[in-house]
Amino acid sequence: MAVDEHTTAPPSLRERRRAAATQEIVDAAERHLAEHGPAALSLRAVARSLGMTVQALYHYFPSRDALVTALVTKGYEDLADAVQAAVDAPSDDPDLPRLVMAAEGYRRWAIAHPESFQLLYGTPLRGYAAPADGPTTQATRRMSEIFERELFDGFSAEQLATADVPALSPALRAYLDQLPHYGHGHLPAPATALLMNAWGHLHGLVALEVFGHTSFLGDHQAELFRMAMRNLLADIHRRIA
């Protein structure tokens, strides 16, 4: 019987052991991150928590930056999973727009994982730079795809191109036109400007809450956030013919 040349061979025992060890290291790094915050992350501390030497850990992550990249990638993937799950889950309000559901999923994950949120969106770690177009970039694309889809679903490219936004300078319009997009195909510059405005508003409110700046609102923060997202979505849709 002929063997399909495209059949993928199962991972070897050595590969499975390496994958398991790598996952164990990432899990330990996440625990350390949750306990001590991003600034205290070090290979030595993670290795110590696993009973390993730093030299042994280097076989899996050759530098702190490699481990940070793995953590950032996983953080974005977990956040995108939470946002998509929020969109797919039944809502307590049958009329709640899916964009608002996505935003609330984003907020809930950030509140539940403040240290990971800080790693993704807080003060950059000294000396760390994510690899260009590497796994962290790939992981953020799912987030972009979800929010672009839920914000602009049902609108044509022509409608998005004529959205009512303040006049864009030729330089800004040209820059926005060449940005990559992952959910709605190519977005015209006015739609990209609206998307960035929505992202800044959404993320700003979440960051204020995660870092404790709106704690005076107490249990009312979720209701006010939902109202803000509803208003944001209504304003953007009013601007699209």
Give me the strand/helix succession.
HHHHHHHHHHH
CATH-defined superfamily of the largest domain: Tetracycline Repressor, domain 2
Helix/strand structural class: mainly alpha
In the CATH hierarchy, the third-tier topology of the largest domain is known as Tetracycline Repressor, domain 2
CA radius of gyration is 21 Å
Biggest sheet architecture: none
Overall average pLDDT: 90
- Would you state the CATH class of the largest domain? Mainly Alpha
Quaternary structure annotation: single chain
Low-confidence stretches: none
How many helical stretches?
11
Would you count the extended β strands for me?
A: 0
What general outline do the C-alpha atoms trace?
Answer: globular
CATH architecture identity of the largest domain: Orthogonal Bundle
What portion of residues belong to β-strands?
A: under 5%
Task: Kindly report how far apart the N and C termini lie.
Answer: 61 Å
Residue share in helix: 55-70%
Counted up, domains total 2
Structure write-up:
The chain is mainly α and 241 residues long. It has 2 domains: 12-62, Orthogonal Bundle (Arc Repressor Mutant, subunit A); 72-238, Tetracycline Repressor, domain 2, CATH 1.10.357.10. Helix content is 64%, strand content 0%. It has 11 helices and no strands. The chain has helices at residues 13-36, 43-50, 54-57, 64-88, 98-112, 114-121, 135-152, 157-161, 170-177, 189-210, 221-238. The longest helix has 25 residues, at 64-88.
